[in-house]
Structures are given as C-alpha cells and as structure tokens.
Design goal:
Blueprint: E1 6-8, E2 13-18, E3 21-30, E4 33-40, H1 50-65, E5 69-71, H2 74-82
Parallel strand pairs: 4-5
Antiparallel strand pairs: 1-2, 2-3, 3-4
C-alpha cells in the first residue's frame, strides 16, 4: 500500500513514492534547524492520505535526528497544528 518516507539529501527533500508517483517535502538545514519550505503531492495521489503520511514520516525523521523544525510550508505547519504529538519539534520563536 505505502512506501517509506526517505530522505533524498541530494535534492533536499523527503520523498514518499507510491504507484509510480512521488510526493515530496522540500527542506533546508539552517542554523541547526530543519526548515520545511514546500510540500507537493501529485494529483494522482491526492485524496489518499499520502500528504499526511509524508508529513508524519518527515517529522519522525527530524525527531530521530534531533533537529528542531521550522514549518515555513503551510501544509507541514497545518499538519503540526492538527497533530499535537509533533508540536514539541517546533523551534522556539
């Protein structure tokens, strides 16, 4: 059904491949923070929870690496608002 979220460090993005398409969350590392800048889910994958699985996996990888998160991307910011278990990852303002 679903693949694992992977870090394509060369492209600075987390990816989730499914059914021949790839959803991704772009990031950059700045001052020891993981800054999410843009998330994209192909139309062929929309409405199937792929974006949420991508966000959950990417945030889990950030947690495992001990990197505080800055959610400049509205999708990632919205996901964190709806899932309090990830709010502790947000970098202090």
């Amino acid at each position: 059904m679903s693949g694992a979220v992977t870090d394509n460090a060369a492209a600075s993005r987390f990816e989730l491949a499914e059914d021949g398409a790839v959803a991704f969350a772009e990031y950059r590392v700045r001052d020891g923070h993981l800054v999410f800048t843009h998330t994209e889910v192909p139309d062929s994958l929309s409405g199937r929870g792929v974006g949420s699985r991508l966000a959950k996996g990417a945030l889990g990888l950030a947690r495992a690496r001990g990197l505080p998160v800055v959610a400049e991307c509205p999708f990632i910011a919205g996901y964190i608002r709806k899932h309090p278990e990830f709010q502790d990852l947000l970098a202090a303002s």
